[in-house]
Amino acid sequence: ECAFWMPSRTGLNLQLSHTLTQVSSGANVSINLPIVTEVFNSARALRIPYTCPLARFRPLVGRYMSPEVVAVRVPLLNLSNFQINDWPELSAKSYAIMVLILPTDSARQWREHELELVEVVADQVAVALSHAAILEESMRARDQLMEQNVALDLARREAEMAIHARNDFLAVMNHEMR
């Protein structure tokens, strides 16, 4: 199982934004929790207890052993490099947290090379999120340009109609004056 915790608009909480198996439930975790601070301050994937609020997005049913859980910070490149009107001004280093839980039906534990792989994946997720933000911004800009082009085309047609009406009026006046 995998979950992704994103900073809230206020920056005071992390909100559960995505999981593999379910729609986000709107769960919140304070950004001031010691475990959150520990994950944010480490560039490495950290083992965290299954009882940690970051890992409570999935109920433990009918199991005698708690599964192994790791958390890793994911830099949010788009928050520091692009202007997003809805977001408050956040620090240059803003992070989300990716939480990974091993299957509950095994006693398997995270191996060191797997933790290194999780760290690499977190970096790739950061790049993907940045690309998604750029794509969203370019799509918004394209939509705005399309709206402006429609308005400009309408204004051009109205101006052409006004010029045509003026020319008709001048032609009639010129004919009447003769």
Automatic annotation (TrEMBL):
Pfam families in the record, alphabetically? GAF
What's an example GO cellular component term for this entry? endoplasmic reticulum membrane
Molecular function terms in GO for this entry?
ATP binding; ethylene binding; ethylene receptor activity; metal ion binding; protein kinase activity
- State the UniProt keywords alphabetically: Receptor
Q: Which domain of life is it from?
A: Eukaryota
InterPro entries linked to this entry = GAF (IPR003018), GAF-like_dom_sf (IPR029016)
List residues of the GAF domain: 1-139
Keyword Iron-sulfur belongs to the record: no
Protein name, as recorded: Ethylene receptor
| Annotated source species | Rosa hybrid cultivar
